[in-house]
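Data availability (excerpt). The following record was deposited with the supplementary files.
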Amino acid sequence: MTTGFRAGGTRQTAFALFAATLLGGSLASTACSQGGSAEQLNAPVLISTRQTVIAIQNKAGLPLNDIKLTVVPYGNTEFSRMLGRMDNEESREISLNQLSSSDGTAFNARLSKPKLVRFKATDANGKPVDLEVPWK
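Predicted structure:
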């Protein structure tokens, strides 16, 4: 009796499904890590993290003033930096070693593991802009 399949067809089909799953999963994770969550996309400020850099982009439609960027690591000490003003659509990259604790200690990635990023500012109308984004 003949089934119509070649002897090696099952192995090739399994490999093709495995490859497609792997490729689809990697594309999906890349899209999520680049675009952020839907909540992040609607936020007035886009925040993305890399190993040693925090990238921020003002999407509020207005300039932002009195910006304070804080990394909250696992532990008690927070590391912050005042950024001043950001115009609408302006982007900045802040290196982690530019952040310091309240006693002036610089952030050291060897000693602290970031848990989240906190962003506080006020827009040109005086409305507060507060965001917290988990470290990815």
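Summary of structural features: Residues 9-35 form the longest helix (27 residues).
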